[in-house]
Amino acid sequence: METSKKGGKGIINEPLSEDEGEEEDNKKKRVLSPSGRRASSSAGGSGQRSCQVENCPADMTAAKPYHRRHKACEYHAKAAVVLLAGKLQRFCQQCSRFHELSEFDEAKRSCRRRLAGHNERRRKSSNDS
Fold first, then answer.
1. Higher confidence at residue 23 or residue 80?
2. Cα–Cα distance measured from residue 46 to residue 37, given in angstroms and rounded to the nearest whole number
3. Cα separation of 119 and 112, whole Å?
4. Where is the composition biased (Low complexity) (predicted)?
5. pTM of the shown model
6. What pLDDT, on a 0 to 100 scale, did the predictor assign at position 119?
């Protein structure tokens, strides 16, 4: 048995049993995507095949990649109001997420926070010229 001291506490390292050794080997064999990120648990599996809006029957298998990636069917991505998690929300085109209606100005498709950043960048570039 080895003893090491980290943070002032003595930690005893005991030899692993056969089962524990196999578990440790399996942990090291995590699947990585080509970009080096850990692959999601649904990679290659069935995963969620429907829109995240409540009671939406849309089958996302035939949807465009953008809509599959954000789990929002084309209809609900463009809808002015949807019911999600018991709240009235709208899909933000800038964030690619659903936000509560209070975060939008009137019928705009981008939330105020993202629009503010967008407008600030536009003002900076127009002042430079």
1. 80
2. 20
3. 10
4. 33-43
5. 0.58
6. 85
Place of tokens 């069917």: 73
The set of long-range contacts for 77-85, using a CB threshold of 8 Å and a minimum separation of 24, is 80/107, 82/53, 83/53, 83/54, 84/52, 84/53, 84/54, 85/54
DSSP per position, 4-48:
EEETTEEEEEPPPPHHHHHHHHHHHT--B-TTSSBPPTTTTS---
Which pLDDT value is given to residue 31? 46
H-helix or E-strand spanning residue 89: strand 87-92
What's the whole-number mean pLDDT along residues 13-24?
A: 48
Give the other-Cβ count within 10 Å of 77's Cβ.
23
Return the CATH architecture of domain 60-128: Irregular (4.10)
